[in-house]
Write a structure and sequence with these properties.
313 residues, Rossmann fold, 8-stranded mixed β-sheet, 10 strands, 15% strand, NADP, oxidoreductase, 3-hydroxybutyrate dehydrogenase, SDR_fam
Length: 313
């Protein structure tokens, strides 16, 4: 099931910044054409598109609202027109329960853009419905192929842990891990569906949000970098096994070998490990999984709930 990305084509959503941008840059450096799908590109992502606009491999940007299924269809159509067949899909776009679609800011409240009459939450459309629909569209194209195909999802350590502050985000990441595991047997017909589950990653999603940065205690551990996550994502495409110490430049001892197959969810801290669906020890206690201090925030939330200050428009 492993395939070299050289000469292949990838679609990556959310590629305008963060992990997905780093994954695109790594794919391009390894000879893979990329369609970047996002609402906009940060300057560094635009620079990447400019650099690879006429080269081989090549990068193409398509402005895409991932909550619009017609735009997801167009994403595949444009990639096929530009590059021919598609080999790798990463429905990576995601948000960390922002104020505009947040469990603690109900539809109709001043902070929320979720309409009380729309019967949907934006954070669920972006984080869960879009990767499910994108996977459907990919499988429809991949099913008749005679060459290996890969779909790489982005879960999180939030897919293993409860967190009162962002319960809908946590729910989406639990769902992504379960969704990926449920598609494990597709590798018997040549389609490998896997996921990375990073710790807290140093991306603008965190660093440009003061409210979220209040949860972080940087004195107790290290960030996971988007480049490290992207390296593991590439391994999910190109390898049949990885070493748990693959991200360490000078490991103190040989690491455990981890087989890669359909349904695999690989936690990415400073080391890599397979997340088991049953009796998993959880993500904490490993370097790269930052400690989140949300005690005061959670106490404030509980007081607001008791006072009747939540759940109202």
């Amino acid at each position: 099931m492993a395939q070299s990305v050289k000469g292949k084509t990838a679609i990556v959503t959310g590629a305008g910044s963060g992990i997905n941008m780093c994954f695109v840059q790594l794919l391009l450096r390894n000879g893979c054409n990329c369609l970047l799908a996002d609402l906009a590109l940060r300057p560094e992502a635009q620079a990447t598109v400019d650099q690879y606009s006429t080269s081989s491999p090549r990068a193409v940007f398509l402005k895409t609202d991932v909550t619009d299924w017609a735009q997801l269809e167009k994403m595949f159509e444009v990639a096929e027109k530009e590059f021919g067949q598609i080999d790798i899909v990463c429905p990576g776009a995601g948000v960390y329960e922002p104020p505009f679609s947040n469990f603690w800011h109900p539809p109709g409240s001043p902070e929320s853009r979720d309409s009380p009459s729309a019967s949907r939450y934006g954070v669920l459309d972006i984080n869960l419905t879009h990767p499910i629909r994108t996977t459907q569209l990919a499988i429809a194209r991949f099913a008749s192929s005679e060459t290996p195909k890969t779909i790489v999802h982005i879960s999180s350590i939030a897919g293993q842990c409860p967190f009162l502050v962002t319960p809908m985000y946590v729910a989406t990441k639990h769902a992504i891990s379960g969704f990926v595991r449920s598609l494990a047997k597709l590798d018997t017909i040549g389609i490998r569906v896997t996921a990375v589950a990073p710790g807290i990653v140093k991306t603008p999603l965190w660093t440009e949000n003061p409210e979220k940065m209040e949860f972080i205690n940087e004195s107790k551990d290290e960030w996971v970098t988007p480049d490290e996550v992207a390296e593991v994502m590439l391994a999910l495409v190109e390898r049949d096994q990885v070493n748990e110490n693959m991200l360490l430049s000078n490991p103190k001892e040989p690491g455990q070998t981890i087989p890669i197959q359909g349904g695999a969810v690989l936690e990415v801290s400073k080391t890599v490990r397979m997340v088991s669906p049953f009796n998993d020890p959880g993500p904490f206690g490993r370097s790269g999984n930052l400690l989140v201090d949300s005690g005061e925030t959670e106490e404030n939330l509980l007081r607001r709930v008791q006072s009747g200050g939540l759940g109202k428009q």
